[in-house]
Amino acid sequence: MGKNTAGIRGRRSQYGAARQRMLAVAGVAGTALLMGGLTACTDEGDKPQRDTGSSESAASDDADDDKADTDDEAKDDTDDAEQADADGGAGGTFAIGETAVYDNIGLKVTISDPEVLEPQEEWDEFGGEGYTAYTFTVVLENTGDESYDGDMTVFQGRAGDDGVEAPQVFSFEQLGNGSMGSVLPGKKSTSKIAFDVPDDADSLTVEFTELSDWDSESAFWTHEF
């Protein structure tokens, strides 16, 4: 009994550490946004741009799959990309699976299609009544000349047309400790993020904010359920 209680406390302390990291990063984000608001202008290079090469590579890989499925997926991807363009694509809005490029930082960010995240432990605080947790795979690619601190990033979720908050999910067993880690030049870092989404929401928008350059604008990916 005592051993089990100690184990639960140990795991909760891990979740607490992850939450503390997010609160600390959020504090830095608030300062960054405040300082960014005092900036007179934003350079065009601070806006995330779409990596057209990533879509072409994905289409090439899909060609090995069943042709009918590939055609349907390609059409869906094209529709999503066109919608992203209509919403301002090159200015920060992307379709799920597309890559946002920050030339000013030397960083590429890709967010994949989500998967349902099921609670597995008694202390998992997500996926309760009226909510479903979804996990996304995030890839950070360092295209610069120096090591990049992946923890200088913030992800937030907004659900539905009203943009209600979709709380970020923490699960050490299924998602790790929440750290993106350092990314060496020319290398990638792959991690998972998750959000608890109201079941009546028909979409989820994931916002990515980069903190090492205060002038950088956020990037947005929207998934339709």
Automatic annotation (TrEMBL):
Transcription regulation is among the record's keywords: no
Presence of the UniProt keyword Cell cycle in the record: no
Compositionally skewed regions (Acidic residues) per UniProt: 59-85
Name of protein: DUF4352 domain-containing protein
Keywords: Signal
Region (Disordered): 39-93
Superkingdom to which the source organism belongs: Bacteria
Residues annotated as domain DUF4352: 96-210
